[in-house]
Design a protein that fits this description.
single chain, three-stranded antiparallel β-sheet, 15 strands, 44% strand, disordered N terminus, disordered C terminus
Length: 294
C-alpha cells in the first residue's frame, strides 16, 4: 500500500490548518451625518433606506452571454437606520422643501456589467450579471447648496447638490440577476448586491467612513414595469442627463434600494490565524525531527 511520507503528511496537515483559518471579513460600522455647517442630522447611522420609487435603467441589456450593459440608479434617501434596522429620528426637514429649511440625501450609481449566464425554464428567462466596474455617489442638497429638490417623475435634482461621497464598484464582487417572466405582462424582478470602496468622503457631511478601507454595501430590488418610478429623464454619468424617455433607450425599472456602511479590515491575518499557522509549522518541525531519527 502506498504511504505518504511523514514529512509530506505534516506539510499537508500544516497547509490544511492554514488554508482553513478564518479570514478577516467586512464588519458593519456606524456613521455620523452632518449638514456641512456643524449641525448633526443623525448619529449612529448604520444604513440608508432609499425611496421605493427610485428609478433604475438598464442600458444595452441583451440576454446573451458575454454582452455588456450599464445599470444606472437614482433615488433619494427616506430614512436613516440604526444597527437594528430601526429608523433614526433625524434633524427636522428631511425631504421637505428647501425654502422651508428642508434638505435631502440622494444616491446615484452607474455600474458596468457583463452577462455571465442565461437560463430559461417554463418560459421564464433569467440573466445573471457580473460587475466589471462603476461608481456610486452620495449627494447632499438644501437651500445653501443651490440645487433643487429631487423629483422622481422628472428625474431632476438627483446630482445637483453637494457631492459628499464617491465609491468605486469592486469588479467581480456582488450578485446580480434579472428574470423576465412568461406572463404576457412583461413583469420582471432582480436582486443587485454590490460592494463599493470609498474613493472620497467629505467629513463635513459623513464622519466615521474615512480612509481607504471603508466601503458601502449596495443592495437593490428591481421590478418591471416601473409604475411610480417612471421618469422622463435620467442622470448621465458622463454627458449630463438623458433628455429623453429612458424606456426608449433602455429598460426602465422600479427600484427599492438600501446601503449599509461597512469597514473592510486590512488584509492582515488575525491573531488566531497566526496561532494556527505557527502550530502547523511546529508540527512540520516535529515530524521532520522524527523523520531524521528514523
Amino acid at each position: 500500500m502506498f504511504r505518504i511520507p511523514t514529512l509530506t503528511r505534516a506539510l499537508l496537515l500544516s497547509g490544511l490548518v492554514v488554508g482553513f483559518a478564518p479570514l478577516a471579513e467586512a464588519i458593519t460600522t456606524d456613521v455620523l451625518l452632518r449638514d456641512g455647517t456643524g449641525n448633526v442630522i443623525a448619529s449612529d447611522v448604520r444604513s440608508f433606506d432609499e425611496n421605493e420609487a427610485g428609478s433604475g435603467l438598464l442600458l444595452g441589456f441583451v440576454p446573451v452571454v458575454g454582452s455588456n450593459l450599464t445599470f444606472l440608479y437614482q433615488a433619494n434617501v427616506v430614512s436613516f437606520n440604526d444597527a437594528n434596522g430601526q429608523p433614526i429620528t433625524p434633524l427636522a426637514g428631511l425631504n421637505q422643501t428647501f425654502a422651508s429649511g428642508g434638505y435631502e440625501f440622494t444616491v446615484v450609481a452607474s455600474i458596468t456589467e457583463t452577462v455571465t449566464s442565461v437560463s430559461s425554464a417554463a418560459g421564464n428567462t433569467t440573466t445573471t450579471f457580473l460587475a466589471t466596474g462603476g461608481t456610486a455617489s452620495i449627494y447632499f442638497d438644501n437651500a445653501a447648496q443651490g440645487g433643487v429638490k429631487s423629483t422622481t417623475a422628472t428625474g431632476s435634482g438627483f446630482t445637483d447638490g453637494k457631492l459628499v461621497g464617491t465609491f468605486n464598484v469592486v469588479a467581480g464582487a456582488g450578485f446580480s440577476n434579472f428574470t423576465v417572466f412568461a406572463s404576457g405582462a412583461a413583469l420582471g424582478a432582480t436582486q443587485y448586491d454590490f460592494t463599493v470602496s470609498a474613493a472620497g468622503v467629505d467629513g463635513s457631511f459623513i464622519q466615521g467612513l474615512l480612509g481607504p478601507v471603508s466601503d458601502l454595501h449596495f443592495t437593490s430590488s428591481l421590478v418591471l414595469p416601473p409604475g411610480t418610478s417612471t421618469t422622463t429623464t435620467f442622470f448621465n454619468p458622463s454627458n449630463g442627463p438623458y433628455l429623453m424617455t429612458p424606456s426608449s433607450d433602455g429598460l426602465l425599472l422600479k427600484v427599492d434600494g438600501s446601503n449599509t456602511f461597512t469597514t473592510t479590515p486590512s488584509p492582515v491575518p488575525e491573531p488566531k490565524t497566526y496561532a494556527l499557522m505557527f502550530a502547523g509549522l511546529a508540527a512540520v518541525g516535529f515530524m521532520a525531527r522524527r523523520l531524521r531519527r528514523s
